[in-house]
Amino acid sequence: MATLARRLEELRLVEHSRAEDIRQVQTRRADIVEKDLVVSDELAPVALPSPYEQAVLALFRREAVTEGRALGLLLGTFDSASLPELPPVPASEIWTVTS
Known about the structure:
mainly alpha, 6 helices
């Protein structure tokens, strides 16, 4: 509770001696659960809706977004190895721009 004590003291809501008392309190996981201090969803890992993931993967397969952009859109729930492999581009579709 040290952070809470410091903030209460900064806001001048408690005296220094009271802040020291607050610092001595140890919050346990049971306290969090029993007193509903944190919504359980806040503790869950990131999960994206399946239709959203499918849409990002479809964009990646069509090469509408790069690998880096797809990974960014997937918010760290995928890594490079988790993305689908793209088919090689036929040589006939590769062209160069000359100036």
